[in-house]
Every structure is written in C-alpha cells, then in structure tokens.
Specification:
By secondary structure, the chain is α+β, with helices and mostly antiparallel strands. The protein has one domain. 56% of the residues lie in helices and 19% in strands. It has 5 helices and 4 strands, in the order αβααααβββ. Strands 1-4-3-2 form a 4-stranded mixed beta sheet. A hairpin with a 3-residue loop joins strand 3 and strand 4. Helix 1 packs parallel to helix 3.
C-alpha cells in the first residue's frame, strides 16, 4: 500500500505548518489560562486557611476567657481579632501571596494578645511594636523588615506596617 505524497505539495505544506503553529499557540493559551486559574485558587486557598487559623485561635482564646470570666460577672473589654495591613505593598511590587504570607507572619507574632484585657495591651503597646519591628521576616529567600506606622488597640487590633527589603 502506498501513501500519496501530499507532503510535497505547497498547499499541504502550508496546511501542516498552520496546524502545527495553531497547536503550539493553543497550548500556550491553555498553559496561561491554567496557570492564572491555579494561582488564583492557590491565593484563595491560603486566604481560607488563614481565616480558619484565625478563627480557631480566636475561638480557643475566647473559650478559655469565657471559662475564666464565669467567676466574674463584670464586663471587661478584651481583644478579639487582629487585622494587619501592609501600607506600601504596591510600591514594593509585592504579589497577593507574598502580602498574605507577611500578614500571617505578623499575626502569628502577636496572636498571644487575643483574649487579653485592653488595659494590659494598651500599657504594653511599645512592646507590641518592638516585637513586630525587631523580627526579620523571610519569605522565598527575601528578607523583610517591618516598621509599625499605625497601631489601633480596641476589640479589633489594627496594625498598619511598612515593609522594606533587606539583603
């Protein structure tokens, strides 16, 4: 059996070349779409995992405090949540995952204040600032130093920091 020599004709050569180039372009588009979708899902997964960790820590601290408060009937204001924002993330060109990781590292540094009395935390605000400021945060072989720009202490502690890359 003999296969006809279509590969020698210019029209068929153009057809096969176009098919090959179209296949390569389609594969490139597929990789781009899959990569962007996977990155978004990874960021969403990390955000959900962080939220779960925050809620577990908060729940654990509040249950422990509720047991301690069962003896006392007076209402004392306590820290319930911690919110961290990085003010200059756009200037440094940080992506969402890096920002999320830095915020989580700061939250882990100061998560011991959840459930504490506001008056105690208010008196030790400089200690809280120095705890954040004196640590070197390492993500993907990059070292970051954080400086506290704004610290709001209430039932929700809001910490605004500025990040700088160090060598």
């Amino acid at each position: 059996m003999h296969i006809p020599p279509f590969y020698k004709k210019p029209t068929w050569q153009r057809f096969f070349a176009g098919t090959l180039i179209g296949g390569i372009l389609a594969y490139g588009v597929f990789l781009y779409m899959y990569g962007s979708m996977f990155e978004e899902m990874l960021a969403q997964n990390r955000a959900f995992q962080a939220e779960i960790n925050d809620l577990e820590n908060q729940n654990e601290a509040l249950i422990q405090d509720m047991e301690e408060l069962s003896d006392n009937s007076e209402k004392i204001l306590r820290v319930e949540t911690i919110e961290v924002t990085i003010a200059n993330s756009e200037q440094l060109g940080l992506d969402r995952l890096l920002i999320h990781d830095l915020e989580e590292m700061v939250k882990q540094e100061v998560d011991h204040i959840i459930g504490q009395d506001l008056s105690v935390i208010g008196q030790s605000d400089m200690l809280l600032e120095s705890t954040i400021k004196n640590k070197d945060y390492i993500i993907d072989d990059f070292h970051y130093k954080l400086e506290v720009k704004l610290l709001t202490i209430w039932e929700t502690v809001r910490i605004t920091v500025e990040a700088t890359m160090t060598n």
